[in-house]
Design a protein that fits this description.
Strand content of chain B: under 5%
Structural class of chain B: mainly alpha
Structural class of chain A: alpha+beta
Order of helices and strands of chain B: HHHHE
Radius of gyration of chain A: 30 Å
Largest interface: A-B, 59 and 48 residues
Helix content of chain B: over 70%
Shape of chain A: elongated
Radius of gyration of chain B: 22 Å
Oligomer: heterodimer
Helix content of chain A: 40-55%
Number of helices of chain A: 31
Chain lengths: 853, 104
């Protein structure tokens, strides 16, 4: 056959005939498990297009060929393969082995000359077609050839300066029905870590990973020893199914909830995949980017190419920056571009979003803080890590700041006075305002957020702008510092660890009411055996439909709907507009209810907190001799409790504003999808506001589609990275001893238990009694997990963060701001948390009996 | 001099009084909180009364000036934030260090 070569014979034909990818794969096919296939050589490409009048340029002189316009491409797409070539293709296909007696399906992928060189990868930019059967094979070969001129490829070619004539071979390979797929880099492709192998994996086919549709699991191994040094599980919400049973069905399918946060690879598979990559590197003589798949327990090598260096140089941010802790402690993921763009438009320039995370301008902070401190000390202060109280004042700076405070007191003081005794019940009026904004079709998402955060007019009730009231509740921090100082000075015998239960116990706090209300719903479920049974299902996403038709479900549904009416706008990562809310996807709540049913019911949270509160008050009474002194302490405690509740409650209503904005964005997305301007759901979150407007004005804005893909991949990359706490500031966090984790005490106490790492309560929301909850961050969606936990350890956070507030209400030890805890601990290890000392000690590893990380 | 001192004292007192009045308005929908909110008016009102007594009835202009200053500052702060936030020049910037946003 003139135009076809078998894959395992491709290497000797050379890159010019079979392209870089096929040549490399052919070389490896003898020694590794490479799916059988054949290659249509570049000569077929030349003959096909030259015959149809497209000048492809001259390879020998380097003269670039013609770039077909959209019209030409459309015409070329309809022209069939030449008779001889078509016959050769069909014969080669017929020679492929059958699968269980059936004709095979294939993958059709590009192997262009210049593709997969050291300097370029074209990864995911040329077309790849899955599940291709005999009937559509010829058309897919033509489509694959034509992808040499798609927008993404042209843009990439222009960026890397590749202007040689286009020549493309096509690989036709047996389709591997992979349950797990992934990519292994034998060197860290970002260059941030030395001597490591990085494995990324997802469920189903690898296309979801290459397109940035899922955040894959990431395994980092040391080169040489292949010791696993880091395992970070991704959110694998979708997969490209291994078998397309329905030919018109969508490729991207949801992953069952229980698998979304489960590790894709066990230790043996991680090692096998790493060894395969190391072997490829040894054979190819350069660091490799290896694509692989696992089907029926067999590991297949799909592709091996040199790791290409992205020619785009990182642009280091100018200036000095420090992470803004109040956002970071609730949300460690990078925000999507649309969320950043909408939020930045309602924030004055006190800081900057860098790679999707918010940072304060360190030099401005230094200018305004009237203390004599070094850069490192100031960073500790801004990150709320410092426990020092002996700072020296800078008097010259102080006078300016007092002046400015006086001016701001006159201009914003009314808000501070009004929010001193705000009845929480009135805040519920904000719902009406959100509803009115939603009904107003003249307001876009940005205007809606602006209106809802700033308030309608200068004489509006405080319930109309909960965000600003939330800012005013930071007085909590200063009052707490005052109480600590007061008790240290006047009640030296009082155990300061008791401040936490002393200031807990606020019945009005919506975060604790959330638990109590969910508990009520769980109690209804407990009395209905049929509902209890439904809640045990692995497919909880189907529960709403099952409840709708179940005759005994009415009381549970009524109770659940009442909960959703109050709390349905909440969820995980709620500042992120791309994150679904509980009312859109209530499955996480069903998991929480199941958790409550399994663990049994204790007293309501508010009652438990009040009991501990009374005990601490008795201890304080004993320690404070004077009645007047007790009055002062009691006043401070009442105020701290009030502001703690005000902070949580105003946050609850501020999230209502974000939920309203999300509703508007989703409506716009629906419109763009219907018009065909967007390809996939969620794509909108990878555009900026101006770009969406541009897309509406100019539907042929092809560049944007290239950007969406690039941003998806960048977003995925960023979420895998620990965000730097500082940028261009000389600050090194204190070193840790091996086996000892150091953090800040957010709720005192000592507890010992088994480590339970949870990355997302929506998909991984079950915790057994006595386990130690270890989380990257927490927000109200995590609260139900605290109920069974013996202690809580959080990677970010501060005393004032949500984790601390809830742990204090529950009276369980809580350690926050423990750097690297998510990567240094594994499920099943025994941990002793001494939150009072701000430390946790690794005891020993236990066999957890499950395959969790 | 007395009038200057009175003005300096009157401004924060006005903020407190104005804020307490607003708080009554805020609390009005919560029936149980109304009386408490009204009670909290007592201290700033008494403070105003003492101040007026100290500067004399003829000093009303100073108190009115303090009242006007507070009101104007409040209105100015409200509208200034609204106006300024619409100006792209003072909005927060967003940058990508990996060059994701450079033209494709």
């Amino acid at each position: 056959m003139r135009h076809i070569v078998r894959l395992n014979e491709a290497a000797p034909r050379g890159v010019a005939q079979v392209g870089g990818k096929a040549a490399a794969l052919g070389e490896l096919a003898d020694r590794h498990n490479v799916p059988d296939g054949f290659v249509i050589v570049t000569q077929a490409f030349e003959e096909h297009f030259e015959r149809h009048g497209l000048h492809l340029g001259d390879v020998s002189t380097g003269e670039p060929g013609q770039v077909p316009n959209d019209e030409t491409v459309a015409r070329l797409r309809t022209l069939p393969l030449d008779g001889d070539l078509a016959r050769e293709v069909q014969e080669a296909f017929a020679a492929l082995p059958t699968v269980e007696g059936r004709a095979p399906t294939c993958v059709v992928r590009s192997s262009a000359v210049g593709e997969d060189d050291l300097g370029s990868s074209f990864a995911g930019q040329h077309a790849t077609y899955y599940y291709v059967d005999r009937a559509e094979l010829e058309q897919r070969i033509i489509d694959c050839w034509l992808s040499a001129w798609n927008d993404a490829v042209l843009s990439y070619r222009s960026r890397i300066g590749a202007n040689q004539p286009v020549r493309m071979a096509v690989i036709v390979q047996l389709m591997i029905p992979s349950e797990i797929s992934g990519v292994t880099f034998t060197r860290d492709p970002t260059g941030r870590q030395r001597d490591v192998i990085v494995i990324e994996s997802c469920w189903g086919l690898g296309a979801a990973l290459v397109d940035g549709r899922v955040t894959p699991d990431c395994y980092v191994l040391r080169r040489g020893s292949l010791e696993l040094v880091e395992r970070r599980l991704g959110s694998k919400r979708f997969k490209v199914a291994e078998d397309l049973l329905d030919p018109v069905g969508t490729r991207l399918q949801p992953v069952p909830r229980h698998l979304q946060r489960s590790p894709t690879l066990n230790d043996a598979q991680v090692h096998a995949v790493a060894q395969l990559a190391v072997a490829c590197e040894a054979e190819r003589g350069a660091p490799q980017d290896v694509e692989w798949a696992i089907a029926n327990g067999t590991l297949f090598l799909l592709q091996s190419r040199p790791i290409s260096t992205d020619t785009r140089e990182p642009i280091p941010p100018k200036g000095r920056w420090v992470a803004f802790k109040p956002i970071l402690e609730n949300f460690t993921d990078a925000l999507t571009p649309l969320t950043v763009d909408i939020v930045r438009r309602v924030l004055p320039r006190f800081g900057q979003f860098i790679d999707g995370r918010y940072y304060l301008d360190f030099d401005s902070v230094r200018r305004w803080v009237p203390l004599r401190v070094s850069d490192a000390e100031l960073v500790e202060l801004v990150l709320l890590k410092s426990e020092r109280s002996d700072y020296r004042l800078k008097w010259t700076r102080l006078s300016t700041i007092v002046g400015l405070l006086a001016v701001s007191y006159v201009s914003t003081g009314l808000l501070w006075v009004r929010s001193r005794h705000l009845p929480f019940v009135t805040l519920a009026d904000f719902r009406k305002r959100c509803d009115a904004m939603l009904a107003n079709s003249g307001l876009d998402a940005v205007a809606t957020l602006r209106q809802l955060l700033l308030g309608p007019h200068p004489f509006a009730a405080a319930s109309q702008f909960p965000f600003q009231v939330n800012v005013s509740s930071t007085r909590y921090f200063f009052l707490l510092a005052a109480l600590r100082w007061y008790l240290r000075r006047f009640a030296p015998t009082f155990d300061l660890a008791q401040i936490a239960p002393l200031c807990a116990g606020t019945r009005d706090m919506l975060s604790t009411r959330l638990i109590d209300e969910l508990r009520k719903t769980a109690l209804v479920a407990e009395t209905t055996p049929a509902i209890r049974q439904l809640l045990q299902s692995d497919r909880l996403e189907e529960l709403p439909n099952q409840l709708a038709v179940h005759p005994a479900a009415a009381p549970f549904v009524a109770s659940f709907e009442s909960f959703i009416a109050d709390f349905g706008h909440r969820g995980t990562r709620e500042v992120e507009l791309a994150a679904p809310r509980w009312r859109e996807d209530p499955t996480p709540l069903f998991v929480m209810i199941r958790n409550l049913l399994r663990e049994g019911f204790t007293e309501p949270l508010s009652v438990q907190a009040e009991v501990r509160n009374k005990q601490a008050e008795a201890a304080l009474d004993a320690a404070l001799a004077h009645r007047a002194g007790r009055h002062v302490a009691s006043w401070l405690i009442r105020r701290i409790r009030y502001y703690a509740a005000l902070r949580e409650n105003t946050r609850h209503y501020t999230m209502l504003a974000f939920a309203a904005v999300r509703t508007k964005v989703l409506a716009l997305e629906q419109q763009l999808l219907q018009q065909g301007l967007l390809k996939c759901a969620d794509d909108i979150f990878f555009l900026t506001w101006d770009e969406i407007a541009a897309l509406q004005r100019n539907p042929d804005h092809a560049q944007l589609r290239v950007r969406i893909r690039r941003r998806r991949l960048a977003h995925m990359r960023r979420n895998r990275m620990q965000p730097p706490l500082t940028i261009n500031v000389d600050y090194r966090p204190p070193r840790r001893d091996a086996g000892v984790l150091v953090g800040q005490c957010a709720s005192p106490g000592i507890a010992e238990g088994t480590v339970r790492l949870v990355l997302d309560p929506a998909t991984d929301g079950e915790i057994k009694s006595g386990e130690i909850l270890v989380a990257p961050y927490t927000d109200p969606a995590w609260t139900p997990l605290f109920l069974g936990a013996a202690a809580v350890v959080v990677e970010t956070g501060s005393y004032l963060s949500h984790a601390g507030t809830i742990a204090r209400e529950l009276g369980i030890p809580c350690l926050v701001d423990v750097a690297g805890v998510m990567t240094s601990l594994r499920n099943g290890q025994r941990l002793c948390v001494d939150a009072t000392q701000g430390k946790a000690f690794l005891l020993a590893e236990m066999d957890s009996g499950d395959n969790r990380p | 001099m007395k009038q200057i001192v009175a003005f300096i004292v009157a401004v924060p007192l006005t903020v407190e009084l104005f804020g307490a009045l607003y708080a009554v308005f805020d609390a009005w929908r919560a029936r149980d909180s109304r009386s408490d909110a009204l009670e909290r008016l007592a201290i700033p009102m008494a403070g105003w009364g003492v101040l007026w007594w100290w500067i004399g009835a003829a000093g009303w202009l100073v108190l009115a000036a303090a009242f006007a200053t507070t009101l104007v500052c409040h209105l100015a702060a409200f509208y200034a934030v609204r106006l300024l936030i619409r100006r792209s020049g003072i909005q927060t910037l967003a940058i990508d260090t990996d060059g994701t946003d450079e033209p494709a």
